[in-house]
Protein: Sporulation protein YunB
Amino acid sequence: MARPTAFRRRFRRRSIFFLVFTAALVLFVQGFYLIERRMMPMIRSYAEVRVVQIAELAIMQAVRSRLDEMPNGRDLLIKTIDPNRGVIAISLDAGGAARVQALAEESMRKTLGTLSRQRIDVPLGVALGSEVLADTGPRIPVTIVPIGAAEVELEPAVEETGINNVLLTLYLKIKLRMRVIIPFASNEKTIEQRIAVAQELIVGQVPLYYFKNGAPSPIPVLPPPDLRPSGTGAGPPSAGAPSGPASGAAPDRSPPPAAPR
Structure:
């Protein structure tokens, strides 16, 4: 009788171990599915938004810290003027542009050093997508790491404003690449920001007619010279001019006299 009892005990222990192992495996698979399908997208989205905010703030602080050392924006644009005081062309001062880029690159290099291995804590409520528990629960660590150096360049942009008017804007374009390291995964994010450093409005002459894209006929902007008023008030009629009712007078609409009977 001892052998069957011992066999039953061993079988019962094995059954309990198998059930516990199966339950643990099912819970692990469900937890992995929850993390992979629901939590990871929320963590990645939250981390990318925070990375963009941190990078844009760092760019603005880096440019503002060297703004006093940069040349004046109007000095970067060299205007060529004709004898009639009209702008023929606008060119970029190469020396001033190189100085702006060098100062921006040096400032961004120092700023990226402070951003290296910066940590962002994502609340567990945010990772689960809960609005009630958004700021509660343990924090999930997320690390951001800059990739390479910042790309700095000057980019001109031309915008048409009104008739024969052009708005020229010179932008300082800064581009960063950041790596977002979250548990079990990593992702790259590119941040690009443009800061206006110079602006010039070029005003041209207003033409008599303006051709607009899609219009069936030209749009008159100014009246032709022969239709413009020559003066104020009416002068005496010139010699040889036919006499008649004054311009603008109402015609005589009275009935003709009756014929005599």
Residues 18-209 form one domain. The CA atoms of residues 12 and 18 lie 10 Å apart.
